[in-house]
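User: I'm curious whether this sequence folds into something compact or stays loose and floppy. Could you predict its structure so I can see for myself?
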Amino acid sequence: MTPAGTLRRAAHLINHLGLHTGEQFADRDTNAIDVAAAIYVAAEGTGPDEFYTDENTSLEIIAASADAMAAIRVLSAAIGTEPCVTQIAPGHDVPDYIEHICHWAMTTPVFGTRPPATSEVIGVLLRAATAADALTAFPHQTERSAA
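Assistant: Here's the prediction. I'll summarize afterward.
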């Protein structure tokens, strides 16, 4: 599935299950799901039990999915703020896209009065999907010429 398709499916999941913004990546009592977990489930077709109980393992599971990470990077770019970075070795920082999108969905923005509503998160997911479609419709515009 394309990143755009994954983002659309994640929006559908959040619409039906609810947006989880608490501890862990999903809530067993309400079935609500975190935005990163929704993207993972959309990409992979299922979610592991660790989403309910083990945040660190959940992060590793999500990061190991190439399809989920492709969609997460697209969403991160659509949010409009820079992702935080994690130092993996002295002098080597990498963007933390999962943290970026999760933090965005649950945190009140600067000059804001509340975190994004579920409908706002769904709207950004769908706009990111549309942007991803536009980029893949004209791949020659994003690739470097061999000439």
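Summary: The beta strands are 85-89, 92-95. The helical segments are 3-17, 35-44, 50-53, 55-63, 66-79, 97-106, 118-137.
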